[in-house]
């Protein structure tokens, strides 16, 4: 049990480390190392027992991937929940990762839309004519236009996540809302992932039975009439199944590339 509390300076330490969130990626866990690195100062502060510190650090080394600009929100909630866990021996520590994981999908959908897809393009369009004219201030202006909102979003999402986390924990213990929020976030996240699969994973087949111009069967058109993106979804489903079976990510990527080349050579996929 710990009586130590997270202070504003501790949030500042998380914020400075959180800048490196996307700089410590690996395929199996994506941003898990950066996430744990950002939380190290408060974990070391909250837990006096060495074994509890180790357990907390291992807890955050599970898979995590999010638009970095809004990653402060789950970091703040995780910090608040770790604080509660350190002071309350009856706190269910498994909920820490449940909430963090449930936030990945919906926050990434929002973050990807706002920052890479909108703000970055807007900043580029505003300075591209300056850059073409050789103006040395063009890249500086680009960095300012993008990074001022970027760092504001990072700081306030972290601060708001922590403040919300404290209230969230207290209310959820009485109402059981945590399970409902986790479920809702998971549903939204799965919807976002489904949309991402359709727009980013492109698999099609050129197979035609008979003469297409004479009314032959174009297999891809038939599949699209049943469910657009069926082959893409099937590929992702197979990849997911293989990962659940213990296939490592790097061999899976290489195997997918090799299998794709073979199928393309055989004329099965386009």
**How many separate domains?**
2
Task: Compute the separation of the termini in Å.
Answer: 60 Å
Rg estimate, integer Å: 23 Å
Mean pLDDT comes to 84
Question: What can you tell me about this protein's structure?
Answer:
The protein has helices at 8-18, 32-46, 50-59, 72-87, 94-102, 104-132, 137-175, 177-200, 219-226, 230-244, 249-265; strands spanning 208-209, 217-218. By secondary structure, the protein is an all-alpha fold. The chain has a two-stranded antiparallel sheet. Helix 6 packs antiparallel against helix 7.
Summary, kept brief:
The chain has 270 residues and is mainly alpha-helical. The protein has helices at residues 8-18, 32-46, 50-59, 72-87, 94-102, 104-132, 137-175, 177-200, 219-226, 230-244, 249-265, and strands at 208-209, 217-218.
Keyword list:
single chain, 270 residues, mainly alpha, 2 domains, two-stranded antiparallel sheet, globular
Please give the structural blueprint:
Layout: H1 8-18, H2 32-46, H3 50-59, H4 72-87, H5 94-102, H6 104-132, H7 137-175, H8 177-200, E1 208-209, E2 217-218, H9 219-226, H10 230-244, H11 249-265
Antiparallel strand pairs: 1-2
Helix pairs in contact: 1-2, 2-3, 2-4, 4-5, 4-7, 5-8, 6-7, 6-8
């Amino acid at each position: 049990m710990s009586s130590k509390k997270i202070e504003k300076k501790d949030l500042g330490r998380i914020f400075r480390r959180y800048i490196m969130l996307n700089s410590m990626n690996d395929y199996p866990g994506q941003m898990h190392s950066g996430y744990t690195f950002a939380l190290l100062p408060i974990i070391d502060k909250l837990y006096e027992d060495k074994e509890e510190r180790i357990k907390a650090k291992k807890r955050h080394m599970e898979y995590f991937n999010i638009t970095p600009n809004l990653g402060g929100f789950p970091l703040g909630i995780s910090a608040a929940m770790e604080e509660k866990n350190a002071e309350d021996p009856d706190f269910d520590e498994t909920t820490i990762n449940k909430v963090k994981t449930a936030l990945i999908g919906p926050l990434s959908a929002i973050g990807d839309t706002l920052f890479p897809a909108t703000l970055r393009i807007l900043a580029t369009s505003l300075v591209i004519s300056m850059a073409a004219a050789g103006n040395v201030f063009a890249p500086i202006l680009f960095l300012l236009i993008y990074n001022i909102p970027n760092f504001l979003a990072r700081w306030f999402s972290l601060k708001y996540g922590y403040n919300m986390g404290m209230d969230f924990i207290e209310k959820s213990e009485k109402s059981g809302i945590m399970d409902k929020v986790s479920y809702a976030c998971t549903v939204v996240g799965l919807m976002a992932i489904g949309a991402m699969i359709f727009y980013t994973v492109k698999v099609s087949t050129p197979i035609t039975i008979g003469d297409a111009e004479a009314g032959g069967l174009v297999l891809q058109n038939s599949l699209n009439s049943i469910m657009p993106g069926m082959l893409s979804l099937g590929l992702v489903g197979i990849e997911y199944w293989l990962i659940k079976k213990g296939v490592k990510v790097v061999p899976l990527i290489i195997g997918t590339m090799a299998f794709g080349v073979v199928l393309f050579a055989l004329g099965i996929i386009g």
